[in-house]
Amino acid sequence: MFNRLASKKEKAGRKNKAKINNEAKKIDIPDNLYLKCPQCKKTINKNDLSTNYYKCPYCNHHFRLKSKQRINLIFDTFKEFDDVRYESDPLKFPNYLDKIKDLQNSEEINEAVVTGNANINGINVIGIVMDSYFLMGSMGHVVGEKITRAFEKAITLKCPIVMFSASGGARMQEGMISLMQMAKTSGIVEVFNEKGGLFINVLTDPTTGGVSASFAMLADIILAEPNALIGFAGPRVIEQTIKQKLPKGFQRAEFVLEKGFIDKVVDRQDLKKMIYQLLLLHGVKK
Ligand SMILES: [Zn+2]
Q: Are residues 82 and 10 in the same domain?
């Protein structure tokens, strides 16, 4: 008797499940339509994100951007330079080239930085945009070379530089050759300075390691996006070294602004206007 009842219930349950599954199929909800904000933990529709400068509509958390998204938000035109050989593996690091090729295919960019002739509201600039989705925006010898050539181009064209930095630092797979890029890029910034060039850099989340210790902090004007992680070594390494607890908000944009490392924290939706005004203020002609 109980067995028969149970099996009847099971059958009804199975029927209901099948019905629900069929209905779900009819509605056809894509798996990747929503994401969770890492800061306020609320669920956000991805379409709402792209129409809100890729910021959380609830807590204003600035999501990390791919270089293409950044270029679309800031520049009116962008013509990429194509002047560096992209695949080379100076230390013969295991699987390094395969990883690079996979990323080139999936991200549709050649390296962790995109450089080119760009335009903001009619002003010609050289644009340099780093991409943290490509090996964490790390600086290998191709990144160093691309940045150096972009500065050389700016010197020739007498153009200001507008950069967006995003990097975990040096590229582990290139060892010492990666660290040498710090000196190389710092050197070209100095040459650019001597020629009187204007260099505006926006530090985005994260700008750390060898990039923060070289060209990123050498700009004439340094802006940052809210709450961006900015520093050299990570907070855990520092805590373990100095054996002290670090203050709240340590290495975030607002904290480094208070300590005088940067000039201003600017919300993403105001960045284009701010950069344009800074260019005009410094006498850059259209
Ligand atoms: Zn949020």
A: no
Residue 116 CA to ligand 1 center (angstroms) comes to 33
The parent domain of residue 18 ranges over 1-29
**205 and 62 in contact (C-beta within 8 Å)?**
yes
If you measure from the C-alpha of residue 58 to the centroid of ligand 1, how many angstroms do you get, rounded to a whole number? 5
Interval between CA 210 and ligand 1 midpoint (Å)? 30
Distance 46 CA to ligand 1 centre (A): 13
Pair (254, 163) in one structural domain: yes
113-152 pLDDT, tens digit per residue, is: 999 999 999 999 999 999 999 999 999 999 999 999 999 9
> Please, which residues bridge with residue 199 across strands?
161
Q: What spacing in Å lies between the alpha carbon of 42 and ligand 1's midpoint? A: 6
Q: What are the phi and psi torsion angles at 245 (to 5°)?
A: -75, 135
The confidence score (pLDDT) of residue 1 equals 46
One domain, residues 87 and 35:
no
| More confident of the two residues 24 and 87 | 87
Contact assessment for residue 167 and residue 206, using Cβ atoms and an 8 Å cutoff: yes
- Which pLDDT band holds residue 9 (cuts at 50, 70, 90)? low
Q: What is the pTM of this model?
A: 0.87
125 Cβ contact partners less than 8 Å away, ≥ 6 residues apart: 118, 119, 159, 160, 161, 162, 279, 284
